[in-house]
Structures are given as structure tokens and as C-alpha cells.
Hints:
Glutaredoxin, 5 helices, single chain, globular, three-stranded antiparallel beta sheet, alpha/beta
Amino acid sequence: MKNKFYLILALASSILTACQDENINPPKKMEIDKKIDKEVEKEKKIQIKEVQIREEPPKEYTYFFENLEKKSTEIHVKEDIYEFTNIKQPIVMVNLFATWCPPCRGQIPHLSNLQKKFKKNLFILSAVVNDDIDNEKLERFIIAQKVKFFISNNQEENLKFAYMITPKLGLKKEFPLPLMILFVNGKYFTHYEGIMPEEMIESDIKQLLKKIKK
């Protein structure tokens, strides 16, 4: 009888222990399941974010420039490609300047020389910025300075272009004048801050011409 009693007691103890184990295990399993669910949800969010970044369209800009003779050109910018309308030359220099700026005035004869010397391959587009000069005074300025290149006095558009391009060049909003940016076949090549020797710019233009001919 004693043996039977101990056997029954052992079985009861074993069943009780098994029940206790079953009560312990489910919470642990629930915690693991919650962690897995959190990781899956986190992965989903990352994937959604990546899809949103990939689907964001590239920024596009268009700027309109017009000189006193009503000749115009547009610069269309998309993904760092600069498309110049009504310009046949492969090399384009955009010159941001002001008529009151001594270095800008000092640069004009050199730019006129370069435009004349490389007219088949170079187009200089000057844009007046931060200047209150009207078209009548600008016309007198062009005659007095013997300017031989395109000048736009559409300052609203000129400044829009300036504020778009200067961060790309690593410059602040208060950028130096003159600021000359050189493009070849719609791509940025280099830029010059302040007055620059004509020989240095000419050397860069000749270097570009060699690349174009290859």
C-alpha cells in the first residue's frame, strides 16, 4: 500500500510540475512573439521609407534671361544638367555681376576679349544682380564699357538662378562679385570668385576645346 501511495504522490507531483511549466512557458513565448512583431514592423517602416526616397522626382528649374534687344535664353536645370536654349556654343559662361562693383567693371574688358576670341565656341551670359540700375542706364553703361556679350537685367530671374547655383558651389547667399560659372555641354566645369586674370580663364577654355574635339 505504501508503494502505491508513493507512486500516486509522484505522479501527482509530476503532473503539477508539468502544469506549472505550461504556465511559465506561454508568457515567454508571447514576449518572443512581440519582439519578432516589432522587428517585422520596423523592417516594414524602413522599406516604406526607402521606397518613398526612390520615388521622389528630381528637382527641376527653369530661368529666363533677356537682354535689352529682347533676345532671350532659358536655362533648364535637372539633375545637374544645364540646358541652354537659343545658344549653339558648347561652352557657356554665366557671369553674375553688378554695375556698381569695381571688380565687375574691371572684368568686363577681359570677358569682351574672350567672347570675341572664342565666339564660335563660347557664349557669355551676364546677369545683373543686387543692382537697382534701370534699362536706360544699363544701355549707357554697355556703350561706355564697350560690352561685347549678352547682359540680362531681369534681376528677379537672375537672383533666382544665383540662389539656386551658389549652394551647389559651396557659397553663401552673400556671394562674391563677379561670380563666373563655366559650363561645357550642359555640365558644370569650374567657377571663378572675384576678378580673375584673362589668361587663366582662356587656359581653361582651351582645355575644354581640346576635350570637345576628342
